[in-house]
Design goal:
628 residues; mainly alpha; 24 helices; 11 strands; elongated; disordered C terminus
C-alpha cells in the first residue's frame, strides 16, 4: 500500500480538495434520511406541527391550561405568548428554546388535552370515585344531566380515536376541566390535589414511551391551532414543500460534489499513470545488457501498460471510495446513536456477518489474483516470441507447436480469470441477502418499539437508511480489498525496476567525469584525404561519427598493451554475439575505424576496421550506442 500511496504525494493539494468535497458529500448524504423522517413524522402524521406549544391559542384555552400547571410552568407558559386580537400568539423563539419548552410543558398540556376530551365511560368512572356514590347512579345519566347535578355546564361531542386494533372509531367525549375549575374556585379541591392527580398521570406516561407522549402532545397543539382558526392544511403543505425543497437542494449539491470528486480523482489518477510511464520508460531505455537479461521484454511491456493501469485505476478508486467509506460509516454510526432507537446490535451483527462472508471469498480468490499478473506476462511473452520469429517458425514448420504454446498460456489465464470471476459473482447476491435480512430485522424490532410508543415510523425509516449506509461503507472497503492486492503486486513490480536499476548504477561507477553515466559515444573516422576529416553528430547529440578512408587496420593487441584497463574490458566484452567482431566478422577489412567510448570500464573503448559503407556506419552507431 505504501508503494501506491507514495505516488500520490505530488498531488497532495488535489487530494486535500477531494477530502473536503467528500465531507460535504457525506454531510448531504447523511442529511437526507433526517428530512425523510421529519416528512413522515411531522409533515404527515402531525400535520406539519413541530412543537407541543400551539402557534395560536384562544384566550379561554390559554387560561384553562394553567390550572394544572406548577408556578414555574405557568410563568414559562405566559412568557411564550403575547395577546393579539383576542388570541394568544406564540412569540418568536429559537428551536432550542422551543424544544426546552416542549420538555417542560408536555405533561401539563397533555393532561390538559386528555381532560378536555375525556371519553364518556372514563368520565363516569372518575365521577364515581370523586363523589363516592354508586356507579349505577351515573350509568343511565347523560353528560348534560351530570353537569346540572354538579352545577356546571357540560357538553358532549363526538371525536375520532383509535381503538386497540388501530381502527378509527367515533366516541362520545366531554370536557371535564370546567368541573375541576369550579371545584378549585369553591374550595372543594385544592392545588395539591390537582398536582397529585398529575403525578399519577406522569407515571402512566412513563410507561407509554417518549415518542408516543410527544405525538399526543402535538395532537393538543393541532387541536388548539384549529380552534384558534389556523389553516392546518396550509401549514402542512408549507412544511412538506419546505422539507422537500431542502431535500432537492441537498441532492443537487451532492450531485455537483460527486462530479467534482470524480473529476479531481480522475486527474490525479491520470497524472500518476503519466508519471509512472515516464519513469519506467526512462529506466528501461537506460538498461544495459545486464539489466535486459534480468527482465524479459514481455515483462517490461506488462509493467509499462497493465501494471501502471492497475495502479492508476486503484488510485482513482481509493480517492473516490476508500476515502469516502469511513467518513460515511462513522457519520452513519453517529446518526444511529442520535436516534436512540436501541437497535445498534442489529447493525453490529450484520457487519460481522459481512466481514466473515467477504473474508471467505477473498481467501479463495486472492491467490489467483496474485497469479494473474504473471500469467499476463507469460501470454505477452509467448505472443511476442511468435510474432518476432514468425519467419523462422514457418521455415521449420513449427506452426502447430507454437499454436499449442499460445493455447496453453491462453487457457491458463482464462481458467484463472474464470475462477476469480465465478468466486466474486457470489459477492453481490450474498451482500443483497444480508442487507435484505437486515432490513427485515430492523422492521421486525422497530414495529414492536412503535407499538410500545418508544419509536416513530419516520425514525425507523431513517434508521434503516443509516444502517444501509453503514453496511455499504463496509462493503466498499471489502470490495477494494479485492482490487488492492493486484495493484500492490503491480506497484511492487514497477518498484522492482527502479530498485534494480539503482543497484546496478551503484555497482558501475563511471570512469570519465562529466559524462552522463547512461550515455556512451561512438566515434567513426571518415577522411577524404590524409589532411581532411569531418565530424557527424547524431540527432540526439550523443553519437559522434568520424570515418577515415585511408585509415589503417587497428591492432587490438597493441592497443591493449598500451591501455591495461581497456585490455581487461575487451577481454570481458569479447563474447559470442557481442562487440565489433560479432558485428563485422573476425577478419578486419582495410578502410576505417570504429571506436565506442563508454563511461564505464566494463565496456569502455571498442575499435575495429571496416569498409566505409554509410548504411553500415549508421547501423553500427545505433547498435553501439545501446551498449550502455
Amino acid at each position: 500500500m505504501s508503494k501506491i500511496f507514495k505516488n500520490m504525494i505530488p498531488y497532495w493539494k488535489s487530494i486535500l480538495v477531494i477530502l473536503v468535497l467528500l465531507f460535504v458529500q457525506a454531510w448531504c448524504d447523511l442529511s437526507l434520511p433526517s428530512y425523510t423522517s421529519d416528512i413522515i413524522d411531522v409533515g404527515i402524521q402531525n400535520s406539519g406541527v413541530e412543537h407541543v406549544t400551539p402557534k395560536r391559542i384562544t384566550e379561554e384555552e390559554f387560561q384553562t391550561a394553567e390550572f394544572i400547571m406548577t408556578d414555574d410552568e405557568a410563568d414559562l407558559w405566559e412568557s411564550l405568548y403575547t395577546k393579539k386580537d383576542g388570541y394568544y400568539e406564540r412569540n418568536k423563539a429559537s428551536e432550542k428554546e422551543l424544544d426546552e419548552a416542549d420538555d417542560t410543558l408536555t405533561v401539563a398540556l397533555l393532561m390538559n388535552y386528555q381532560m378536555g376530551a375525556m371519553e364518556e365511560d372514563t368520565f363516569k368512572q372518575l365521577m364515581t370515585q370523586q363523589t363516592g356514590q354508586d356507579a349505577s347512579v351515573f350509568e343511565n345519566m347523560t353528560i348534560e344531566q351530570i353537569g346540572e347535578m354538579m352545577h356546571v355546564e357540560l357538553k358532549s361531542f363526538q371525536q375520532e380515536k383509535e381503538d386497540d386494533d388501530g381502527n378509527k372509531v367515533k366516541v362520545t367525549c366531554v370536557d371535564v376541566r370546567p368541573i375541576f375549575a369550579a371545584m378549585l374556585e369553591s374550595g372543594q379541591m385544592d392545588k395539591d390535589t390537582v398536582l397529585s392527580m398529575r403525578d399519577s398521570m406522569e407515571k402512566t406516561l412513563d410507561t407509554m414511551g417518549s415518542s408516543l407522549v410527544k405525538s399526543m402532545g402535538i395532537a393538543y397543539a393541532v387541536s388548539a391551532d384549529k380552534a384558534a382558526g389556523l389553516d392546518l392544511d396550509q401549514i402542512q403543505k408549507t412544511y412538506l414543500l419546505t422539507a422537500g425543497l431542502k431535500m432537492v437542494g441537498m441532492a443537487l449539491l451532492m450531485g455537483v460534489v460527486t462530479v467534482l470528486v470524480g473529476l479531481f480523482a480522475s486527474r490525479v489518477g491520470a497524472g500518476i499513470g503519466r508519471d509512472l510511464r515516464e519513469k519506467v520508460f526512462k529506466r528501461v531505455v537506460g538498461f544495459s545488457n545486464v539489466e535486459m537479461d534480468q527482465f524479459s521484454t514481455a515483462s517490461l511491456i506488462t509493467r509499462s501498460t497493465n501494471d501502471i493501469q492497475q495502479i492508476q485505476m486503484v488510485s482513482v478508486m481509493v480517492l473516490r471510495m476508500v476515502a469516502y467509506a469511513p467518513i460515511l460509516g462513522i457519520g452513519g454510526v453517529l446518526k444511529v446513536m442520535k436516534t436512540g432507537a436501541g437497535m445498534e446490535w442489529i447493525i453490529v451483527l450484520a457487519i460481522i456477518v459481512i466481514l466473515g462472508y467477504v473474508m471467505l471469498l477473498v481467501s479463495l480468490a486472492m491467490p489467483k489474483f496474485k497469479l494473474m499478473q504473471k500469467l499476463v506476462d507469460n501470454i505477452n511473452l509467448v505472443s511476442r516470441e511468435i510474432l518476432t520469429g514468425l519467419s523462422v517458425i514457418r521455415a521449420f514448420g513449427r506452426e502447430d507447436k507454437e499454436e499449442e504454446r499460445f493455447d496453453g498460456a491462453n487457457k491458463e489465464l482464462t481458467k484463472t480469470t474464470l475462477f476469480t470471476n465465478r468466486v466474486m459473482t457470489f459477492m453481490m447476491p450474498g451482500m443483497m441477502m444480508i442487507m435484505n435480512v437486515l432490513t427485515v430485522g430492523i422492521v421486525w424490532v422497530g414495529a414492536h418499539k412503535i407499538d410500545a410508543g418508544t419509536m416513530q415510523v419516520g425514525a425507523m425509516t431513517a434508521f434503516i437508511t443509516y444502517a444501509m449506509m453503514i453496511v455499504m461503507s463496509f462493503l466498499m472497503l471489502t470490495m477494494m480489498s479485492i482490487m488492492l492486492p493486484r495493484a500492490a503486486v503491480a506497484a511492487g513490480r514497477i518498484d522492482g525496476n527502479r530498485a534494480h536499476a539503482e543497484q546496478s548504477l551503484k555497482e558501475r561507477r563511471p570512469l570519465v567525469h562529466g559524462l552522463d553515466p547512461l550515455v556512451g559515444h561512438v566515434h567513426l573516422l571518415l577522411v577524404e584525404d590524409a589532411g581532411a576529416q569531418r565530424e557527424l553528430v547524431g540527432a540526439d547529440g550523443e553519437v559522434q561519427v568520424l570515418v577515415a578512408n585511408d585509415a589503417q587496420p587497428v591492432d587490438d593487441a597493441k592497443r591493449n598493451e598500451d591501455d591495461p584497463q581497456r585490455a581487461d574490458a575487451s577481454h570481458r566484452h569479447d563474447e559470442p554475439g557481442l562487440g565489433a567482431h560479432a558485428l563485422f566478422g573476425n577478419e578486419p577489412n582495410d578502410g576505417g575505424e570504429v571506436r565506442h567510448h563508454n563511461a564505464y570500464g566494463n565496456d569502455e573503448d571498442r575499435a575495429h576496421a571496416f569498409e566505409p559503407d554509410i548504411a553500415v556506419v549508421h547501423m553500427v552507431a545505433r547498435q553501439l550506442s545501446r551498449w550502455g
